[in-house]
Design goal:
- The structure is a single chain.
- Helices cover about 25% and strands about 25% of the residues.
- It is an alpha+beta fold and about 325 residues long.
- The chain has two domains: about 190 residues, Formyl transferase, N-terminal domain (Rossmann fold); about 100 residues, Methionyl-tRNA Fmet Formyltransferase, Chain A, domain 2.
- The longest helix is centred in the middle third of the chain and has 24 residues.
- It is elongated and about 70 Å long.
Length: about 325
């Protein structure tokens, strides 16, 4: 059970390892683009390429057809990787070895739908893959295996997702035989150490004047490609596509331009920090270097770059509090 590109290496590894996959469950095709053409999830395309039957139910919980497929298949295990739906308890009980989840964080930290994004947004230097026995909670089941990796200083969510997807396939491949042979003792999670990574919303990308340059830079990497980090500039949505913390220590109001040169635009942020903006994009226009943007917009030192900045009260950007 899986949907996005993240889940494809897990499926491919199961095939490579000679596992008999009796069914693949994924989300329904979704419209995208101006023509609203239906696009199949990556897992569907991968499964079909191997001749695996594909099911795309809109609902799982009270779906008798889904129950019939699981009961008739009598599978040893159900492998789940970024499926995108909550599984009902009756489904968790059907496979002989239960449902085994490939989760993109070091549980119990970053439970939830967007662990890769929030681990970068929060400035973490380490993350990893956890293989978990699923229960009725949200990523609360006992731990079966885990492996940590370092997060690159400039690494984006898309880049980290690729690395973690491959790592997840590797760790699962090593762990499944041990589960089959009864050589793994599940370890209960410490709920007191749990943090959460809720599903991303568009407003998560809105620049908050309370954030430092490093925090904004982290979010630029974390929220790529969606929802992006944005503000309003001269009445238009302005996306910051690439940025990093600058060594400059500004004496300007937050959101204003400190300097402009070929290296980029420096803007003042909270706590006397400065953001070096490298690439921007006005909504509906092409992505461009900060230097070209500044010239095209006739931007000057002292101009307000983060116009109409709206502080977010109770934003989900702060997701690392204790459970």
């Amino acid at each position: 059970m899986g949907t996005p590109e993240f889940a494809v290496p897990t499926l491919e590894r199961l095939v490579h390892d000679g596992r008999e996959i009796v069914a693949a469950f994924t989300q329904p095709d979704k419209p995208s683009g101006r023509g609203k053409k239906l696009n199949a999830p990556p897992v569907k395309l991968a499964a079909e390429s191997h001749g695996i039957p594909v099911y795309q139910p809109a609902r799982i919980k009270a779906n008798e057809e889904v129950r019939a497929v699981f009961e008739e298949a009598a599978a040893d295990a159900c492998i789940v990787a970024a499926y995108g739906k909550i599984l009902p308890e009756w489904l968790l009980r059907i496979p002989r070895l239960g449902c085994i989840n490939v989760h993109a964080s070091l549980l119990p930290r970053y439970r939830g739908a967007a662990p890769i994004n929030w681990v970068i947004a929060n400035g973490e230097r380490e993350t990893g893959i956890t293989i978990m026995q699923m229960d009725a909670g949200m990523d609360t089941g006992p731990l079966l295996a885990a492996r940590a990796i370092h997060i690159g200083e400039r690494e984006t969510a898309s880049q980290l997702s690729i690395r973690l997807s491959q790592l997840g396939a590797d760790v699962l491949s090593e762990t499944l035989p041990k589960i089959e042979q009864g050589r793994i003792t599940p370890i209960a999670q410490d709920n007191a150490q749990a943090t959460y990574a809720p599903i991303l919303k568009r407003e998560d990308g809105l620049i908050n004047v309370k954030l430092t340059a490093q925090e904004i830079s982290n979010r630029v990497r974390a929220f790529e490609p969606w929802p992006g980090v944005f503000t309003t500039f001269r009445g238009q949505r302005l996306m910051i596509r690439r940025a990093e913390e600058s060594q400059a220590r500004p004496e300007y109001r937050i959101g204003s331009v400190i300097s402009i040169d070929h290296s980029g635009i420096r803007a003042a942020c909270a706590e006397q920090t400065a953001l070096l903006i490298l690439e921007l994009q006005i909504e509906g226009k092409r992505r461009m270097s900060a230097w070209d943007f500044a010239n095209g917009m006739r931007l000057r030192q002292g101009d307000d770059l983060f116009g109409c900045v709206i502080p977010m009260n109770g934003s989900s950007a702060n997701v690392s509090g204790e459970a």
